[in-house]
Each structure stands twice: as structure tokens, then as C-alpha cells.
Write a structure and sequence with these properties.
The complex is a heterodimer. By secondary structure, chain A is α+β, with helices and mostly antiparallel strands. Chain A contains 20 helices and 7 strands. A 5-stranded antiparallel beta sheet of chain A has the order 4-3-2-1-5. Chain A has a two-stranded antiparallel sheet with strand order 6-7. Chain A is globular. Chain B contains 12 helices and 18 strands. In chain B, the strands form 4 sheets. Chain B has a 7-stranded mixed beta sheet, sandwiched between helices. Chain B has a 5-stranded parallel beta sheet with strand order 2-1-3-4-5, with helices on both faces. In chain B, strands 11-12-13-16 form a 4-stranded antiparallel beta sheet, covered by helices on one side. Chains A and B meet through helix 5, helix 10, helix 11, helix 14 and helix 15 of A and helix 1, helix 2, strand 7, helix 7 and helix 8 of B.
């Protein structure tokens, strides 16, 4: 922070020597922030930005975060909550002014317009911040709000910049600012620089310029060809984005379906309560999150998800074992009764969760390492939560394949499902294996629930959203085949995402269902049909 | 959660169901009111709160000595988010339990389902949710917002300098009657303001939609055409959480592309991590964050009743509050719970609402209410950034739709009609 301040001081010394003498002026403008009228507030914010006092960053930050209030005498004060009351202090000098009740002060309300004004007021100062992200966002802001007045500051920032990404953003911002000039040569140069970018903001800016009146014909042509070349590249980027979206949707379908691939695919139990196992996993994530918040220091919070995954597995798995021992084992070989009984169980579980946790959705926060995304290339952002889930689903699938193929339990499991009597004759405890297999399937559904809590709702109805998709994937991929589930989920995901922009989400979903029905007519056993005796079951 | 407490909760739940099934034998000295909100199924998430709100109001009036010297007794039924079951349960409430009034319904489809029952049996329904309008029944009082009290002011706000001078519009909705009708009205309204079809994108997704990647990317693309763009969201229910999560993670900030929602309030936000949603908007007639004595008392009463200080209040709860207060005032004025008498007493009934305004029931069975626009805060509440100076009278029929030209809803003499172009009776001087 100190280095930052020194830099700003130097900057101020360079640009505007007669500053510093006006703590009074600063105070006067800060008072205007307390105006009722948003016009006046925006004016005050802009004036603060021009003032360039180092205090300004702190004051504007406080304004944006809602820490500035107006007291009964219409003075702007800085307030920090202290139990039910607030500690107030002077925003400029920092002098403490005592503690007041919440009815004595009113928060200064900030709307999007003021927020934009704050961004652009701070933009000039933030260009020289020592935090890379601050500089990057300042450069992006300068790109969105180009003005000739910013050119010198941008040039200085480019000279001082070491980071390539920020430098590139700064150069684009500079070009954007030059675009606003009246000099034709400068404009053409700027357009040439900007034509190489894939940033949607650049496209936005160029089309804005193109839509504007009285353009020079040469500039017009340059703009058209720049826009065309960006649009052309955007097509390829769009295709790449669609593939990623398809894989991401596929990974979610896969996670939801792996558990079912075991209980339905391997054991042959039509488990309508599968969705509720997912839901229980999601609620485990919620409970673990609450525990972390209540017990551990905030710095540990990001780790809650790591703990939630095994917790979700154990809780859903335990419920699965319980369900198998108390209900399903009496119904083997009777698919219709199993269907009805597990459907009943699913309703009971839903209402149980509703009674215990309440009907409204629960907020499960993304840990900071799963928030936001990374812009691969202009206009194509890969979000962290989806990327993590994509990786997670392959890890789960791989672990499951290893378990089935390489462990004794996996061997027993396959033996029991392929020929129960023979397995029993060989001394395998079939009842125990049944319970554990069902528990495993349910446990994986629980882990899926933890993952799904990161992209969607956590509500008692969570399971009903995924149950149909899960059955669709397993049936399409081929009952009993893990590879089939994988290929089925991924291809459904990609087909869905290819259809969606063309047909819309509603029709797209209908089309996928119709395609699957037609496919099943042709290949009743799905993509990867099991061969041999197991298939006769 | 250990198995013991699980078992205990299960036992409690079972006992509760048993208790509900064998509700107490009828006592002659009570006034029965029906509560028709889903307590299970997809809509339980929103509707169970309204059931609690009605029970809170009943509790309150009984503490003050009841109504017409009798205790008020709530008959709670569960239509389980099942639209035909709504009609069955409504019939049961009116014919078997002989309730004086019913508070209920959330989705428009459930309201449409019970409408014939209430009209056939001359019952009285108070409907507390913002909706698409295009209706006025003699047997329903609509205490939520009509489109001209929510959707149109929100769009007007975004068009203003304050709201960002928006020129390009994405109408994103869930695929059912409310979003489709609202967007039809909005499109007509935007046309009347000179917005061309090229600057409007309309898109629908199914209920419970959870994969918003394509839609958010399409919104981003639509917004990069050199004009300020906003999203008008009529996305309903569970689809909202994944939508907002995708928006936040794709880095769309409210200062870039603001989203204004008509179905997202405090209750819905309590299920979302709002840190990355600051500045997105919602339009309602009430926000929990408004400061006035009525609202403070309302929130305090709610917290005390529900025994949880963390539970929020929202617009449909306020509409339920207004409806209940108005009904009790009308009953006291009429001196009876007879539906025809109460209906007449309802017209012009005034209530000081938690929004801080005095709301009035009009003869088209809709309210005059204030309109407020709020921006989401990091703590899941809203900052009111705009509110109307006075209350706005609801239009049952939208003046922006060609097919609604000249339609009048007025249930008093000489019109006595909810959907007419000429009055039923001649007016004599």
C-alpha cells in the first residue's frame, strides 16, 4: 500500500502540483456524496476522481462498500458496525465521532450509475496500483470508457507495465482512446491495433463507432473490415466454446448418472430415490459449510468442499445401505414393486429434508478457488466451478473403474451380479455385497450432490431435476456399462449444446428425448450393450 | 445429523401429518378461513412461507380478540404443487369446511385451475403474487402487482439516465404463461418507445433449467453490439440460482449488463451467495429494507412468530399481509363474513402497508400500490434506488396490447364486469 501511495504522490507531483492544499475542498466534495440526488452524487464522485488526492481511493472504496452514512445533521460519516450500533468517524480525517444507534444514521445508497462513476474515477489512480488485478480492471475500464483525456496516463502506464496481459489491455485501451480523436491517421492506426483483438468489448466499441454518424469513408472501410475479421474469428471461438459447454454439461450428467449406473446398471434395481441421494449429498455440503463457518476461522473456509466430498459420500452411502437392508432386498427380481417403493422413499426423503431444513433453498457458496473463470480467449470464458467438476467427474469414474477391476470387493461385486447362485456357492457373502454395492452407488450419488451444489440449487427438489437425465444417460449408454455411461453422458451433453442455440432450450430438450427414443427403438440395449450371460438377466 | 435426531424429526413429521389429517372437529363459534398454498412439491419453496404468513396474521387477530367476537381458525390444506389438486382442495375448502375466504395460490396456472371453482361456488380468493394481468374475476382479489406496477416501471427505469440509458433488451424467461404474457406486453411497450425488434432478444427455458452456459454466452454476444444492454428476467423458481451463478462466474457485472428480475426477492436471494451479484436489480412493491414503523413492526412480528431472526420478509408476504388486513377490515365493516357483503365492503378499503404507503383496493379487484426498484446488496437485501412518489393503480387489462383495447374491469354499477367493452347496465342520471 505504501509503495502505491508513493507512486500516486509522484504522479500527482508530475501532473498537478498545486494539490494537497485542499483538505477543505476534499471535505466539501465528500459532503456532496450525501446528496439525495444521484446526479449530484455522480458529480461529486467525478470531482473526487479529478482531485486525485490519495485519500480519494479509500473514500470511494468506502462508498462502494456501503460504509459511508449520513448522520442526523446531514454530515457524511464513515461508519463501522459494532454490535447493534455503529462507530462513526470523519471520512477525511479519520477522527472518531463516537458511537450511534442505527436509527441515527442513513446509509448512502449507491446504484449502478454511481458504481460506474466510481470505477472510472478510480480508473486513473488504479492504473498505477501495485496489484495486478487492479491494474487489469482499470485498463479494461479505460477500454470501455475511452476518452482522449486519458491518453497521457495510459501511455505512462504502458511504459511502466511489466505484465504482458495488462500491457496488452492497456494498449487496446490506448487505441480505444485514440479512436475517439478527430485525427484520421490516429484513428486508422487505432483500428489496426484493435482489429487484432478478440475481446467482445472491443467489438462492442468498434460497432459503436461504426453506428455513429459522419465517418470518413476510409475509416468506415477500416472499421468494416476490422469488425468482419473479429466476427470471423469469433465463429471459431464460438465453436470451441460450444464443445466446452457440451463437455461441461456432459460431466454433470455423468456425475449424476454414475451412481445410477451401479444401482440400476449393475444391480438392476430401478432406484427412483437416486435423485434424493444426490440431494442428500448437496445438503451434506451445506451442513459442512455451516460447520466450517461456525467453528473454524474464516481462512479455512475454502477447504470446506474437500471435507464435504467424503461427508457426502458417507451420508448418502449410509442411507443407501439402510434403504437396501430395509426395503430393496425384499424386492429383488420384482422391478415394478421396487420402482413404486423407491419412489415412495424418494417422497419421504424430500419431505423429511423439507421438515428438517425448511423449504427454501440453501445457499452453498463457491470456495474462492472455484469462483469466477479464466478468459481463454476473447469471449470464451471457462468458469472454474465447471472445470473443477469436469476433472472431478473423471477422477470419480477412474476410481470406480479401478475399484471394480482391481479390488477384491469389485471382483465379488461383479461375481454376484453376474451369477448370484454361483457366487454364493463360492462362499461370497452375497447379501453383504448387495448392501455394499447399493451403498457405493448411493455414495457416489452423494458426491455428485456435493459437486452439483456448486453450480445449482440446494433444495429438497434437487433430485427430481436430475433423476430423468440420469436414467436417460444410463439407458442410452447401455445398461451395465461404465464406458457406455461415459460416452452416453458426453454425447448427450454435446448434442444438447449444439441443438440449444438453434432450437432453443425447450425444443432442444424435446429433440434430444425424441432422438433417444428413436435410438432405443433401433438399439434397445443402448450404445454399449453387454454381451454374454449377464445380458440375459 | 445423527440417526437419532433424524428419527426424532421423522417421528415429529409423521405426527404432524397425522394431526393435520384429523383436524379438530368444527366449533360453531369460529370463523374459518382457508389456506391453499403448496407445502410439498416444487412450489413449497415459495408457498410455505405464505402459509406461515397467514397463520401469523390469524394468530395476531386472535390475540386482539378475534373477528366479530369470534376466533379465527385457519384450515390449512396442501395442494402439493399439483395444479388439478388445487381445484379439488379449493372445492373441499368451500364445500366441506365452509371457509369464509381463501388465501392461496402462487403460480398463474394454479390460479387458473381454481378460478372456475371459486366462481361456481361464489367463494372468495385472495391472490398475493405479482402476475401477468389479463384477468379480473368477481371472486378473486389480486393483491400482487399487475404488469403496469412492476414490469413496465422497471423497463422505464432502465431506459432513464439513472438506470443506464438502456437501448437493447434481452427478455429471458421460463416457458409458461406468466413470462410469455409479460414479455408480450413488454415487447408492445418497447415498440411504443421506438425500440425495434432487432434490439429485442426473447428466449425461454424450461422449469428448473440448470445449465445456463449457452444462454449466458448468447446474452454476452447480444450485448456486444455497441448499445447498452439489459436483461429483463422472468425466470421463475429454481432456475434462478444456476442462472445467477453462471452470470457471476462468467464475469458479467451489473455495471456491464444489468439484470432486472420480477420473481427474485429476499427469500430467493437467501439461497444464493450474493457477493458477485451486487447491483443487479429487482422490481417489486415492497422490499424488506425499506424503513418505516409499519415495516419494522411487520418484520418483528414475523421473526417472533417464526422463531428465527434470520428469516426474511418479501413482497408476496407483504401482499398477503395487505390482503388479510383488508379482508378483516371489510368483514368488520360489513358485520358479516357473507361473500357478497364483504366484496362490496372491499372496494375502497385502505391499509397502511409495510411498504410505507397507504394502499387502496379498486373496483377492478386490484390494488393501487407503489413501485420500487431495488439493487441487490452483498448481504442478500436490496437497496431501493427508485420508488414512485405515489401509488400506481393496477391495470387488469394492458393498454399496450391491441387485443385489450377498450376492455374495462369494474365490478361496481353500472359496469359489473371484469372483461367488457360496454357496461352491463345503463347509467341513469
Amino acid at each position: 500500500m505504501t509503495r502505491f501511495r508513493v507512486l500516486i504522490f509522484l504522479l500527482l507531483a508530475l501532473f498537478a502540483l498545486p494539490y494537497r492544499a485542499h483538505a477543505d475542498e476534499l471535505g466539501a466534495i465528500v459532503q456532496q456524496l450525501g446528496a439525495d440526488d444521484f446526479d449530484q452524487k455522480a458529480g461529486a464522485v467525478a470531482a473526487l476522481g479529478k482531485l486525485g488526492d490519495p485519500q480519494v481511493v479509500r473514500i470511494l472504496d468506502a462508498l462502494r462498500d456501503g460504509d459511508l452514512y449520513v448522520d442526523v445533521d446531514h454530515h457524511v460519516v464513515f461508519a463501522k458496525p459494532n454490535d447493534d450500533k455503529y462507530d462513526i468517524s470523519d471520512p477525511v480525517t479519520g477522527k472518531a465521532l463516537g458511537t450511534v444507534g442505527s436509527d441515527k444514521i442513513d446509509q448512502i445508497i449507491v446504484n449502478n450509475r454511481i458504481r460506474s462513476a466510481i470505477d472510472s474515477a478510480m480508473g486513473g489512480l488504479m492504473l498505477f496500483s501495485d496489484k495486478r488485478d487492479d491494474r487489469l480492471s482499470a485498463a479494461q475500464d479505460a477500454l470501455k470508457n475511452p476518452s482522449a483525456a486519458r491518453i497521457p496516463a495510459l501511455q505512462k502506464a504502458i511504459d511502466a507495465e511489466r505484465d504482458d496481459a495488462v500491457r496488452g489491455a492497456l494498449q487496446r485501451a490506448l487505441a480505444a482512446s485514440r479512436l475517439t480523436s478527430d485525427d484520421k491517421k490516429q484513428q486508422l492506426e487505432a483500428i489496426a491495433t484493435l482489429a487484432g483483438s478478440n475481446d467482445p468489448d472491443v467489438f462492442n466499441l468498434l460497432s459503436q463507432e461504426r453506428n455513429g454518424g459522419n465517418l470518413d469513408p476510409a475509416v468506415k472501410t477500416a472499421l468494416d473490415s476490422a469488425l468482419a475479421s473479429i466476427a470471423n474469428r469469433q465463429k471459431f471461438i464460438g465453436a470451441a466454446a460450444t464443445i466446452f459447454e457440451g463437455l461441461s454439461l456432459g460431466s454433470i450428467l455423468l456425475l449424476a448418472a454414475i451412481g445410477l449406473a451401479i444401482t440400476f446398471g449393475v444391480m438392476g434395481v430401478i432406484n427412483m430415490a437416486h435423485g434424493e441421494m444426490i440431494m442428500l449429498g448437496a445438503y451434506s455440503a451445506y451442513v459442512v459449510q455451516q460447520l466450517f463457518e461456525a467453528v473454524l476461522p474464516p481462512s479455512w473456509f475454502d477447504a470446506y468442499l474437500i471435507v464435504a466430498v467424503p461427508a457426502g459420500f458417507l451420508i448418502a452411502g449410509a442411507v443407501g445401505v439402510l434403504l437396501e437392508r430395509t426395503v430393496i432386498r425384499f424386492l429383488y427380481e420384482r422391478p415394478l414393486e421396487t420402482l413404486l417403493a423407491t419412489w415412495g422413499v424418494s417422497l419421504i426423503l424430500q419431505q423429511l429434508v423439507r421438515t428438517v431444513f425448511g423449504a427454501p433453498n440453501k445457499a452453498v457458496a463457491n470456495p474462492s478457488w472455484m469462483t469466477g473463470g479464466v478468459q481463454i480467449i476473447g469471449g470464451f470464458t471457462v468458469t472454474w466451478n465447471r472445470l473443477v467438476i469436469l476433472v472431478f467427474c473423471f477422477v470419480v469414474l477412474g476410481a470406480l473403474a479401478l475399484l471394480l477391476k482391481r479390488t477384491r470387493f469389485g471382483l465379488h461385486m461383479r461375481a454376484v451380479t453376474q451369477n448370484r447362485d454361483m457366487a454364493a456357492a463360492m462362499g461370497i457373502p452375497t447379501a453383504q455385497i448387495d448392501a455394499l454395492t447399493f451403498g457405493l452407488g448411493s455414495g457416489i450419488a452423494g458426491m455428485a450432490g456435493v459437486a452439483l451444489s456448486q453450480i445449482g440449487n440446494v433444495s429438497p427438489n434437487l433430485g427430481t431435476i436430475y433423476i430423468i437425465d440420469s436414467f436417460m444417460v444410463v439407458v442410452f449408454g447401455g445398461v451395465g456399462s461404465l464406458l457406455g455411461t461415459l460416452v452416453g453422458a458426453m454425447s448427450l451433453g454435446i448434442v444438447n449444446k449444439l441443438l440449444e442455440p438453434v432450437a432453443g432450450a425447450v425444443l432442444g430438450k424435446v429433440a434430444v428425448l425424441v432422438l433417444i427414443i428413436l435410438f432405443i427403438q433401433k438399439r434397445p440395449r443402448g450404445l454399449f450393450a453387454l454381451k454374454g450371460r449377464a445380458a440375459e438377466m | 445429523m445423527n440417526p437419532k435426531s433424524l428419527l426424532r424429526n421423522f417421528a415429529i413429521a409423521t405426527a404432524l401429518f397425522a394431526a393435520m389429517a384429523t383436524s379438530p372437529a368444527k366449533a360453531e363459534d369460529t370463523i374459518k378461513i382457508g389456506v391453499l398454498h403448496s407445502l410439498s412439491g416444487t412450489m413449497a419453496i415459495s408457498e410455505s412461507t405464505l402459509k406461515d404468513t397467514v397463520l401469523m396474521m390469524v394468530n395476531d387477530i386472535n390475540k386482539k380478540g378475534g373477528l366479530l367476537g369470534k376466533k379465527v381458525e385457519a384450515v390449512v390444506v396442501d395442494p402439493a404443487s399439483n395444479w388439478p389438486l388445487f381445484a379439488e382442495k379449493a372445492r373441499e375448502l368451500l364445500q366441506k369446511d365452509h371457509v369464509a375466504v381463501v388465501f392461496g395460490c402462487w403460480t398463474s396456472v394454479s390460479r387458473k385451475s381454481v378460478l372456475p371453482v371459486f366462481e361456481e361456488l361464489n367463494g372468495l380468493l385472495f391472490y398475493p403474487v405479482q402476475y401477468e394481468g389479463e384477468e379480473s374475476s368477481n371472486n378473486v382479489f389480486y393483491t400482487g402487482a399487475a404488469p403496469n406496477q412492476q414490469a413496465i416501471p422497471a423497463v422505464e427505469y432502465l431506459m432513464s439516465k439513472e438506470g443506464g440509458d438502456v437501448k437493447r433488451w434481452v427478455l429471458e424467461g421460463t416457458d409458461y404463461v406468466y413470462p410469455r404474457t409479460t414479455n408480450k406486453i413488454l415487447r408492445a411497450f418497447l415498440h411504443s418507445k421506438g425500440v425495434t425488434d432487432a434490439d429485442i432478444m426473447e428466449n425461454y427455458t424450461p422449469f428448473g433449467f440448470s445449465d445456463w452456459q449457452t444462454e449466458v454466452a448468447a446474452i454476452k454476444k447480444f450485448a456486444s453490439a455497441g448499445k447498452k444492454t439489459a436483461v429483463v428476467s422472468t425466470i421463475n423458481g429454481d432456475a434462478n440460482v444456476p442462472f445467477y451463478k453462471e452470470l457471476a462466474n462468467q464475469g458479467i457485472k451489473a455495471t456491464d449488463i444489468p439484470v432486472v428480475a420480477f420473481s427474485v426477492g429476499e427469500e430467493e436471494l437467501s439461497g444464493i451467495d450474493t457477493k458477485n451479484l451486487v447491483g443487479h436489480l429487482a422490481a417489486w412493491n415492497y422490499f424488506e429494507s425499506v424503513k418505516n414503523p409499519t415495516n419494522t413492526a411487520f418484520i418483528k412480528e414475523w421473526h417472533a412468530f417464526i422463531k428465527n431472526d434470520k428469516r426474511v420478509t418479501n413482497d408476496p408476504m407483504e401482499a398477503t399481509y395487505i390482503g388479510f388486513k383488508m379482508w378483516t377490515q371489510a368483514v368488520m365493516q360489513a358485520g358479516t363474513t357473507n361473500v357478497d357483503a364483504v366484496r362490496q365492503a372491499m372496494y375502497g378499503q385502505k391499509v397502511k402497508a409495510p411498504s410505507g404507503f397507504t394502499v387502496v383496493m379498486n373496483t377492478n379487484h386490484h390494488l393501487s400500490k407503489p413501485v420500487m426498484i431495488g439493487e441487490i446488496r452483498a448481504d442478500g437485501q436490496f437497496n431501493v434506488v427508485y420508488k414512485t412518489k405515489t401509488t400506481i393503480k393496477a391495470d387488469a387489462w394492458s393498454p399496450y396490447l391491441a387485443e385489450d383495447k377498450g376492455k374495462i374491469a369494474d365490478w361496481t354499477f353500472p359496469w359489473v364486469c371484469g372483461n367488457c367493452t360496454t357496461a352491463k347496465y345503463k347509467s341513469y342520471q
